[in-house]
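Hey, can you fold this one?
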Amino acid sequence: MPAETSTQELIARRNRLLGPAYRLFYEQPVHVVRGEGVWLHDAAGNRYLDAYNNVACVGHCHPHVIEAIARQAAVLNTHTRYLHETILDYAERLLATFPAEIGQAMFTCTGSEANDLALRVARTCTGGTGVVVTRTAYHGVTGALAELSPSLGLPEPTAPHVRLVPAPQSAGDETGEIFASGVRAAFADMARSGIRPAALLVDTIFSSDGVFADPPGFLRPAVEATRAAGALFIADEVQPGFGRCGEGMWGFARHDVIPDMVTMGKPMGNGHPIAAMAARPELLKEFGARSRYFNTFGGNPVSAAAGMAVLDVIERESLIENARRTGTDLRTRLTALRAKHELIAEVRGAGLFIGVELRRGGAPAVAETAKLVNAMRRRGVLISAAGPGANVLKIRPPLTFGSEHTDLLVETLDQALQEI
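Sure. Predicted structure:
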C-alpha cells in the first residue's frame, strides 16, 4: 500500500539521519500529522484516540495556548537576564498553587534540566552526593539523571552515590512503612560506605514503576526517613503534576507532605518546552550564595505565556475536577472488565493516571501486554506500558478526556483482550 511504503521510507530516512539510539512507539509506528483535543490524525487520514499523551495536558493544539504563544512571540522573546513582567506574573501564579513553604521558582526548558538543577541544589545545601530512587525510576536524560533512571534500560547504576529501592507494591496499611524501610536501608548503606546523602527523588505517582497511588499518605514515612538521614525530598511532578491526579495540582498533596523541592515539565506548556524547579527559599538562598544559574531559554516570555495559558485552561475548564470525575469512572469501568478477562490482575491510579496490571498464572504477562498495546493501536486507541516487567498498561490521556472517550477506550480494550 502507498501509505505503508511511505511509512517504511520515513522510518529508513529517520534511522539514516537520526541514528540508532531513538525508539518509536508500536510495532507499526504512527505517522502523526495533526492533533486536536484528545485526537491524533495520521498521514493516511486515520484518527486515533490519544489515551497516553500527558504532554498535551489540556488537549492537542488548544486554541487559547496557541494564541498566547503567537501573541507573545510577535512582541518579544528574550531571557531572564533582562527584566520582564511575564515571567514574574507566571512565577507568582504558579507558586500560588504550592504550599506556602515552597516560595521560589527557577525555570528550565525540560524536566530533565529541572531535576538536574534540583540535584545541584540538594548537593550544595547538604554537602552530600548520595541519591535514592526507585528501582524502575525515570527522571531524565542528562548524564546525572541517566544514572538515576533505571527504566532507560541501561545497566544498573554503578555510580557509588546511587541507591535503588523497590517501589510500593501494595495498597495496604503497611505500604508506607515498607517503602520507608527500604529508604532507611538505602541511606544506612550509604553511611556504611562513607557517602553523605543528598536526596530522595521520586515521581509521586511512581509511573515508570507501574503506577502506585494508594493509600494516600503512604509516602510520608519515607520523607521523614529522608530528613532524618540529613537529605532532602525532591518531588518529581513532571508526570503527575498539573491536576492529573484529580486532587489538586500536585501528586505529593495526596500524601500530606511538603517537599523541599518540586520539579515539573512535560504538561507545563502543553507541548511548548517549559519546565521548572520550585523550592523552599532558604535552600535557594544558600545555593545562590555559592552558585550562579542561567538558562538561555528557561524562563523566556513566550514560554511563560504558554505556561500562563495552560493554567488558564485548567482553571476555566475545571480540568482537575474532570480528571477526578472521569478518572474515577474510567477506573470503575476498567475494574469491571476483570470479571470478564482474567488477564487483568489489578487496576490502580489517581485521576487520569491509571495503571492496569496484567498477569498470567501469577506471573507478569509481558508478551500479552505488548500484544495488547499494539492491538489497541490497530483499533485506533493509543496507550503504552510500564513497570519492571512492562506488564502494566499506562493510561494518561489529556485532561479534557470525557465520558464518550472513556466508552471508546473501554470498549476497544475489551475487544483487544478478546483478540489476544
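The two ends are 26 Å apart (CA to CA). Let me know if you want another pass with a different chain boundary.
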